[in-house]
Amino acid sequence: MENLKKYKKLQGLQQLFHGEYRSIYVLGAFTILASVITYVLFSYTENLLKERLQERLLAIVSTAATQFKAEEIEEIRSIDDIGTKEFEHLVYQLNQIKDANTNIRYAYLMRRTNDPDILEFVADAESLKTEDELDVNDDGILQDDEMAPLPGDPFEINTYPVLKNEAFYHAAVDNDLEEDQWSVQMSAYAPIFDLTGNVTAIVGVDVEVSDFLALTRSTLLPFLLFVLFLIFLLTLLTLILVRIWNEKVKAVEELDRQKDELLSIVSHQLATPISAIKWNLEMMIDGDLGKFAKEQLKTIKSLSEISDGLSDLVSMILDVSRIQLGRVHIEQQEMDLENFFKELLDVIKPKAAEKNIELLVKLPSKYPKAMLDKRYTHMTIENILSNAVKYTPNNGSVNLSVEIRNKKLYCAIKDTGVGIPKADQVKIFGKLFRASNVRNTVDGNGFGLYVAKGAIEAQGGKIRFESEEQKGTTFFIELPLEGQKK
Question: Which of 323-332, 458-467, 471-480 has the lowest mean pLDDT?
Fold first, then answer.
């Protein structure tokens, strides 16, 4: 009997031993799988971060290239031109680019030479600095790599394929990082065109990306911990995983709420400086700050239009965040509907005329008293009318029909545009959603109809539509004229 007990105990130990080994095999398999997943995710994240960095650099140099005048660059040919106003202005512009982007280490202009493997410098942001300012390591000795290039200095490009093969044709960015004794950098270039469309030179920037490397490397450890944590849950705590998943869902919802809260705060903070910019630009246009040359005034008006668009976008984002958070504040006020629709059509008629679109309008002869939120109502109807014009081909038609019945405003906006695909119609009022047939062909941000629906429903109204692809769309708006009850 004693021997039998010992045998069973030994057998149980063997089963436990084999069971532990099986667990080890499973854990080993998961570990290998986790390592592969970690490597793939890390590589993907690293490439994604790199692509975002390259997109940012392309945006910087593309914008910078538009700031230079080709005729000024053509004036700079040698060291003898350093004292000229043109050279000083070019250096000033390069420094402006550096000041606007704190991570830029070098900003410079270069042009082609007769040798396809050699370029020559035109100007550098450091060209007018003193020796003390150029002495980066403060050793009192100006080394070769600390000296700023001067006009006419050669630069070999055999080891810079992007600079040699792409930079003079389109904006381009290096695929690889470059490391020197001070930092890790990535370079980007963009061509500068003269009035005839010929490339005069290129502007280049070297951006310090040490933070990028630190960020990509720091992602490896969180990936490892995350995957190991998943292995632990899968092998030992499956039931707890369900509970954690539910908690994570709540955390994501809270994060989404906080994101919208942050979006609202940021929008508020942006609104004030943008309003100040608009006000100052209007003062310039009105001549309150003195007279400007014709070209200057043209540029100021262009900036004013851009600031108007930016202001509208900030207002739209703010409205989106309010709707998302359920904080739409309706300011009911007595409205003159006749004047309201006159102002609205004054905005839409020029847009329709640009595309030779026939604008058919049917309005009531008399209007009753209306208690509505003027801003939200104007924004909604204008947005839908603008969309109707935007998505209708040239020589089409847009029909606005307004009726007053049973103390309600009924507004129908019909167009002969591209229509909305049937598969997209259930999502058309969603945030950031755009129909598949216009997504890549017509500009838009996907906020308009989301805000329109929220604005109308917040006033106790309704909005719906009927659409057939390639035949047109009709939006129907219903609003109580006595306002939303408290």
Answer: 323-332
